[in-house]
Amino acid sequence: MHALLTNQLTHQTKQVKVGFSWTEFFFGSLSPLFRGDFKWFAILFIVNILLTSFTLGFGTLIAHIAIAFFYNQWYTKDLIEKGFRPQSESDKNILLSKQYVNNNIKPFQNSSMNNNDINSIDKLKKLLDDGAITQEEFDDKKKEILNL
Taking 60 as the threshold, does the pLDDT of residue 45 lie above it? Predict the structure, then answer.
């Protein structure tokens, strides 16, 4: 099963798999690398090295099986934290069915930013760079401007 996620800011779309990760099962820590998910690649690579050295490789096999049940969910949650949203209600329902997201998440809304929004975000970025506001204040105001 698959769901489409679209980034609110960049309009980049990614198709995410829902359920058991066969690529993780067969390719281990290389699976995140195929997706450009360097954070999970590094984590899983280190786990593989540690398990291999302490269990003569048997722990790695068990870890591949266990992680394969969770990796797609971890990847999807990371994308949502980066601003991706389900592209449609049906995509949201697919993610809800496997408990990847909660019911509060809103599907992607295709709204183009106007020049006032861009100027407002540019001004906020300047304030952030000058130290007048914190990163948290910047993120909150940006979400407010973009209706996220």
Answer: yes
Three-state secondary-structure class, residue 84: strand
Task: Look at residues 60, 69, 109 and name the one whose alpha carbon lies nearest to residue 89.
Answer: 109
Strand partners, 5: 14, 86
* Three-state DSSP class for residue 72: helix
Which residues, 6 or more positions from 1, have their beta carbon under 8 angstroms from its beta carbon? 17, 18, 19, 94, 98
The model carries a pTM of: 0.69
Q: Which of 37, 11, 12 is nearest to 23 (CA)?
A: 37
| Dist CA 97 CA 103 (whole Å) | 10
Which has the closest alpha carbon to 125: 135, 114, 115? 135
- Kindly write down the DSSP assignment for every residue of 1-53, as one continuous string: -EEEEEETTT--EEEEE-S--HHHHHHTTHHHHHTT-HHHHHHHHHHHHHHHH
- Can you give the pLDDT at residue 114? 61
* Closest-CA residue to 68 (of 35, 20, 140): 20
Residue 80 DSSP label: H
